[in-house]
Amino acid sequence: xxxxxxxxxxxxxxxxxxxxxxxxxxxxxxxxxxxxxxxxxxxxxxxxxxxxxxxxxxxxxxxxxxxxxxxxxxxxxxxxxxxxxxxxxxxxxxxxxxxxxxxxxxxxxxxxxxxxxxxxxxxxxxxxxxxxxxxxxxxxxxxxxxxxxxxxxxxxxxxxxxxxxxxxxxxxxxxxxxxxxxxxxxxxxxxxxxxxxxxxxxxxxxxxxxxxxxxxxxxxxxxxxxxxxxxxxxxxxxxxxxxxxxxxxxxxxxxxxxxxxxxxxxxxxxxxxxxxxxxxxxxxxxxxxxxxxxxxxxxxxxxxxxxxxxxxxxxxxxxxxxxxxxxxxxxxxxxxxxxxxxxxxxxxxxxxxxxxxxxxxxxxxxxxxxxxxx
Length: 374
Fold this sequence. Notes:
Layout: E1 4-7, E2 10-15, E3 18-23, E4 26-29, H1 31-35, H2 39-61, E5 77-87, E6 94-96, E7 105-109, E8 113-115, E9 126-131, E10 142-148, E11 157-168, E12 173-184, E13 190-201, E14 215-230, H3 236-239, E15 245-246, E16 258-275, E17 279-295, E18 299-305, E19 319-325, E20 329-333, E21 337-348, E22 351-359, E23 364-373
Parallel strand pairs: 15-19
Antiparallel strand pairs: 1-4, 2-3, 5-11, 5-23, 6-8, 7-9, 9-10, 11-12, 12-13, 13-14, 14-16, 16-17, 17-20, 17-21, 18-19, 21-22, 22-23
């Protein structure tokens, strides 16, 4: 049985008359079989495949914190629904399998270049997984099974939805929050988000700052987003059609399997802008960073050599099923570095439409719609 595990991609694109939710899901074809190879090889392959997804999530989450350089006045507020959209560079849409130095997985056909999750929608190379019936260090290595690396989504962006609220405090300071409760999207999984930030006006601290024609401020924002999805990988997937694999585990061993992905993203920015009655524009420079982690809680079947095989000539079970706990545990650092950003806000009474662009290694857009006062 071929396992298909779908990771949720979801974006919100905001227009003048409202917003629409556009889910874009990516399949990790045969990911279960990737996990059933050696733990080190599975982690190397999964990390290479997910790299732009993890980096792009961090870049997208670091957008949308503000739509003006000027903080709210005391007790002023805004509520904005928006979506960041990070652009995946062309060089991160594929990777060379040979650069991963895999130990038990070898390229069988299809070449060495595989697509990442944001790469082309084409079938990946076929990979053979080997194990030794003589046990570790043996000399009778044999092919156990094979699988194709998953296709890409043919979607070169990583979207990230968010709801942000800001409230003005004393001393030209604005406190900002982000929140999305745990939201389930059909069978594709769930996600939740939380963030906190602050913006502080600098004009008050500069000699003659009140006379300047522009607003100067510093802004900081931190966001955490979690995405999760359950899936099912059983020993029967591996031993189907095979007579030389022994399985001693009950089916319930594989209950509770899922993948959890966690992204931490933060940025700090210096802003300059001008706010007029109907329009605000701003620009700035800053620094951003992010970390993406993915884990697979639960037990997962893999195949290894049967140590009793060489001692019993009547034993035809060259291999055995082994349960591996949490085989996937990867961490991806974002393309941390300096960035430049610019944006605008159009305001109609208490309603506003906003947009911004961030120039960095993973450049990104953000569009939003909401209400604001003071």
